[in-house]
Amino acid sequence: MNVEEMKKAVAKEALKFIEDEMVVGLGTGSTTAYFIKYLGKLIMDGELEEVYGVPTSYQARLLALEAGVPVVGLDEVDAIDIAVDGADEVDPQMNLIKGRGAALTMEKIIEYRAGMFVVLVDETKLVEWLGQKMPVPIEVVPVAWRAIAEELEVFNATAQLRMAEKKDGPVVTDNGNFILDAKFHRIEDPLDLEIELNNIPGVVENGIFADIADLVLVGTKDGVKRMER
Amino acid sequence: MNVEEMKKAVAKEALKFIEDEMVVGLGTGSTTAYFIKYLGKLIMDGELEEVYGVPTSYQARLLALEAGVPVVGLDEVDAIDIAVDGADEVDPQMNLIKGRGAALTMEKIIEYRAGMFVVLVDETKLVEWLGQKMPVPIEVVPVAWRAIAEELEVFNATAQLRMAEKKDGPVVTDNGNFILDAKFHRIEDPLDLEIELNNIPGVVENGIFADIADLVLVGTKDGVKRMER
Amino acid sequence: MNVEEMKKAVAKEALKFIEDEMVVGLGTGSTTAYFIKYLGKLIMDGELEEVYGVPTSYQARLLALEAGVPVVGLDEVDAIDIAVDGADEVDPQMNLIKGRGAALTMEKIIEYRAGMFVVLVDETKLVEWLGQKMPVPIEVVPVAWRAIAEELEVFNATAQLRMAEKKDGPVVTDNGNFILDAKFHRIEDPLDLEIELNNIPGVVENGIFADIADLVLVGTKDGVKRMER
Amino acid sequence: MNVEEMKKAVAKEALKFIEDEMVVGLGTGSTTAYFIKYLGKLIMDGELEEVYGVPTSYQARLLALEAGVPVVGLDEVDAIDIAVDGADEVDPQMNLIKGRGAALTMEKIIEYRAGMFVVLVDETKLVEWLGQKMPVPIEVVPVAWRAIAEELEVFNATAQLRMAEKKDGPVVTDNGNFILDAKFHRIEDPLDLEIELNNIPGVVENGIFADIADLVLVGTKDGVKRMER
Question: Which residues are named in the active-site annotation (chains A, B, C, D) (predicted)?
Answer without folding.
Answer: 107 (proton acceptor)
